[in-house]
Amino acid sequence: MKNAALKTACSLAAAAVILFSPVQAQAGSSGGDRRFAVEGAGNLDCASFLDSRKDRGSPEYQRFIGFAEGYLSAANLYEPATFDLSPWHNAAAFDLILSNHCETHGEEKLANVLQRMVSSFRPLRIAEFSPMVEVGSGEYRAIVYETILKRAQAALGQLGYYAGPEDAKYTTDLREGFLKFQRDKQLVETGVPDPATLWTLLNP
């Protein structure tokens, strides 16, 4: 299990590098001239977040993660043509993305980092409501949007890992496709569309 957790962490850490490359950051600042008030943890800097991360059970750390989740939820409401900006990310993914960025940007305010994250997530968003489906069995399960499962089927098909329909049905063939893809990419072999797998498969 330690090796599995390490592989997942490495995959999501790589996501942080892609998210905050100079090109992404510049694109994300295109609408950044508008001034607005920031409340709560958004006014604190990256160094404060990293300090709170030493005890992930602390109220201060939970305050940071709660602010991040709330910020992205608000973005879902106000971003045009958006139902969910981060359709497969969870609190653990947000933590890794933020921490990797903050390691080299200690003075940056959390609200600014999250706005960059919003800009980087736009190509991945779901534009309209989509039902969710639980897939997998036993130790490895995932709950994903049907839209995302269809995207995964299409992507696996284009890469030669899957030859079935794009119907959001979790079949034995689809499970084998995920396993082969995960094996080739040195990901945890879960056979399901977990966050690290979806990031590696669907990130443009």
From TrEMBL:
Coiled coil: none annotated. Residues 150-198 form the Peptidoglycan binding-like domain. Keywords: Signal. SUPFAM superfamilies: PGBD-like. It holds the Pfam family PG_binding_1. Residues 1-25 form the signal peptide. Gene3D superfamilies: PGBD-like superfamily/PGBD. It comes from the Bacteria. This is Peptidoglycan binding-like domain-containing protein.
